[in-house]
Every structure is written in structure tokens, then in C-alpha cells.
Amino acid sequence: MSFPSAALRRSLLSRLALAVSLSAVFPAFAADAVTPDGGVYRGDMRNGKLHGQGRIEWRNGAYHEGGFADGLSHGAGVAAGASGWRYEGGFDNGLMHGRGRMRFADGSEYEGEFRADEFEGRGRYTRPDGEVYEGEFRKGRFHGEGRLEMADGRIYMGRFEDDEPAGKMRVIYGERHYEGGVADWQPNGPGRFTDAQGNVFEGTFAAGILTGKGTASMKDGARYEGDFENWRFHGQGVYRSADGDEYLGAFAWGLYDGEGTMVYARPRPDGRLRDSGIWRRGKLHDAAAEALKQRNVETVLYNQPAVLQQHLQALRTQDPARIDLYLLAVAGDGREEVFRREVEFVRGQFDRDFGTAGRSLALVNSRSSVDAVPLATQTSLRQALRALAERMDVEQDILFLFLTSHGSESHELTFKLNGIDLPDLPAAALGEMLRDSGIRWKVVLVSACYSGGFVDALADEGTLVMTSARHDRTSFGCADDNDFTYFGRAYFKESLKPSASFVDAFDQARGLVEAWEREDLAGVQGAGGKGDELAEEEHSRPVIVAPAPIREQLRRWKAQPAK
Description:
By secondary structure, this protein is an alpha+beta fold. It has helices at about 285-315, 340-355, 380-390, 425-435, 455-460, 485-495, 500-530, 550-560, and strands at about 30-35, 40-45, 50-55, 65-70, 70-80, 85-90, 95-105, 110-115, 120-125, 130-140, 140-150, 155-160, 165-175, 175-185, 185-195, 200-205, 210-215, 225-230, 230-240, 245-250, 255-265, 275-280, 285, 325-330, 360-365, 400-405, 410-415, 425, 440-445, 465, 545. α3 packs parallel to α4 and α6 packs across α7.
């Protein structure tokens, strides 16, 4: 974030002077007197001069009341000007001096020490808009140690010079705070900034922006040390994730970009512990990766038909004495491995906890599994549904269809594999495939941005439909190095236990997702200067449609005695 740039909006003091000649000599016999500027004096006199207690009034409404000595105001007194100001306090030699309080016509007020008609020493100055300064003054200006609370809630604590912060300050703005150099009301020079979530940024600031060498210590345990540009990792640096993975190398605008090495805290699925080479936009791009991509293309062309048939033929037929559950899990976008990892977890979970072993099938687009697992394409999905229908009792058994990928505003699920162009899956096409299969009872969970746009194409009395986002909302957690998307983790890992219903698990997952999104989005907005309140329209808002007939069929399935 950058602190709002604002010069102090004030005219702190009109230079105060009693435009009064109080040293006039009056006839000794006069009890009252008129000053040369027309003021009418009533009070004590000595040797023809105002001396003792008295009051001067002018026709414009100004007045002065209090002590006098040798024709000049002296000691405690009260003075008021025609413009609306009023002062109560000490005087010396005709000038405000010592402790006093002054209130201006606009409602602003100063209370503290005066010297020769100036705010001088310690005092407190308040404005009607809520701005308050308490500290040292010199010649009517903030000068010395002080504390300034602005009308917008910012608080500056430290040294001031001529109404401006000078040198090292402590600045508080809501739940955010900063310690370090300040210039023109913004962080400038070495400093330390803590955002509302507890993330800490240290380094060199310029005009409120972290730029140059610095560190970022995140609340979740992640840490970065290196170069920054406009708050983002940019240049050379070291990043250690909360999971313990460590990257050393080049960054560009917050992403791995350039030459670098990633050392993993735990082995990757293929057993490797590090990746080195040239990175682009957070992903490794090198000769080996390019060669793998080309090999994958040839593998797909020559091996995939046989791989698909092998997996389809391995599906078991249903048990006529039971309502069986079948699983079809689809990972659509092979450019990011999170979807493959999610599908692998879900298949293992269902085979273990929900009796789908031998009755589950995965279609996965991934660079790491093209030689062993069927791809996710419109053709393979259609063939898989047909094969499942042949093995199921389509009037009794239940199909759980899980699809995870990126999604578009036009409500199409992304099917992609590096090096191969695949048609995406429109909501209408998926609905047509399911109707053509003849499978009556279905649970369909679509985890993707804008996935709520699939509801109308899929919904019927025999189908429970769940989506990770509303039709006009994005979902979260699709990064390549994640094990789950946000909704996948909330639903399958955190909420779907063997004893839970699919609907109850959705209700719990929806609450978890909202909490995680609020934490993430508040952090982004706080760092970007948008404020800490999360706008309602940022949430993904998962959707569920659960007609009574499918819920009753799921109840019957759950009520069956265990095998």
C-alpha cells in the first residue's frame, strides 16, 4: 500500500496581535478612558496608564478583559476578536504568553503554551473534522515530538518540523502500521510495514512503495528476501513457502521468472526433489520440459485409444442386490497439476470410503500421466459415460461425476494439454452427454470458475448438482503447486467423511471456502490500498441444487448394510 499523500489542510494560526495601543496616557481624574484606536476602557489605572483589572471593548465586538500593567495586558485575561476567535490565558507585555486556550471561529482549538502571541512549547490542537495534534510547537507550527491523528484515521507519532513529519515515524492506519522514515506524509527510506493480516515487509520505501532490497515475512510462515518493485518480488531473491519449498533465482512481478532453482521439501509425485532452469511466469521452461511435451504429444497420438479401452474394460458390473455408487473423476486443464492431484485424492477417497473400488474411473489431462491414464476430452468423456451405463443398473445405481478445471464466463470447462489443442466442454454438451447415457441417478460436482453456469444444463429431479462458484463468480486455489483447489480441499478433504451426506458436506465446505476467501482477499486489498473490507461480490458463492428424489435415493444407498 501507499499512504495517501496529503499536505495538512489547515491555516494553523493567523498571527495574533492585539491591535491595541494600551500605553496611552489618560487624565488622572478619569475613571473610564478611550484608547487611541477607539476602544472603551473601564477599570483600574495608575499614573494615567491602564493598571490593575479592567476591560476594553471595541465597536466591532472585540474585547479584552483581565490584568494590566503600565498600559499593557499582563497576567491572566480573556481576549476576543471580531473574526470570532477567543483566547483565555496568560499575557505578558501586551502579548499572549504562558498557558492558555484559544478557539477559532471555524471550531478549531489550541490549548497549551504561548510565547509572544505564538503557539510555542507543548500544546494540543484540534480541528472540527476530528484532526488532533498533541506535542511540541514552535512559532505556531508542529515542531518537535508529537502525535497527529488525521481525520481519516491515520496516526503519526514522532518528530515534526514546520507542520510536516520529519525523520523516523510510527504510522498507524486501522490494523496496519509502519515504522521508519517518512517524507511528504508517506513511507520513505528504511522502514517496516505490517499489514492487517500480520504480514511484515521490511526494506527501502519510496513515496509509500516498497522498492529495492527487502524482506517479506508472511503470517503463514512463508518468507522472501531479495529485490522488490512496487511491493512485488522483482529481481533476484529467495522465497521459502509455508510448506518448506525454497526457490533461489530470478523473479518478475511476483512470479518465478528467469534462471532459478526450486528445492522441494518433499518429493514430487515422480520422485524429484529439485527443478533448475529457466522459469517463465512461475513455471519451469527448459529443454527437458519441451522434450517431454513433444514426447507426450506422440504418446497421445499412438497410445491413448488403447489406454482408454484398457481402463473402461476394467470397470466392474453392478451388484443386482444393491444400489451401487460409481465414480467418474475428470481433471480438465493439464497446464496445472493441481487438478490431477485433486482427482487422484478423490478417487482414492471414494474407493476407500464409499465402495467404488473397481467402479471408479479417472480422465486426466497431465504431462505426468499421459502414458498410463486416459485423457479428459469430449470423446473420452462420452465413451466413459457409455461404458459406465453399460455396467450400471441405470434405474437404480448412482453416478458421482466430479469435474475440476478452469472455467470461462461462457460456461465452458477447460480441456487442455500442453502441445495439444483440445475442444473445451460447454455446459450444454455435458448435459446432453448425461441425458444420452440414460443414467437416472447422478451427483455432479463441477469445480471451476463460473461453474454455476452448468446448473441449468444439468439439473433434473434425479441429479444433485454442486458447483464451486456462482455463474458469474470465480473460484480460488488453482495454482500449479497446490494439492487442492479451495473448494476441492474444503469439500473432499475437510468435510466429506464416510458418515456425512453429500449435501451436509457441501454446507460445511461452503462456510470454509468463504472464510478462506475472506482472509486471502482482505490481504490483497490491504496491500493494494483498497481498504480491508472485503466486497461481497468477490466471494465465489458455491451453488447446490438438491431435489428430493435424488436425496431420497442417496438416503437408500447410505442405509444399506455394509458389505
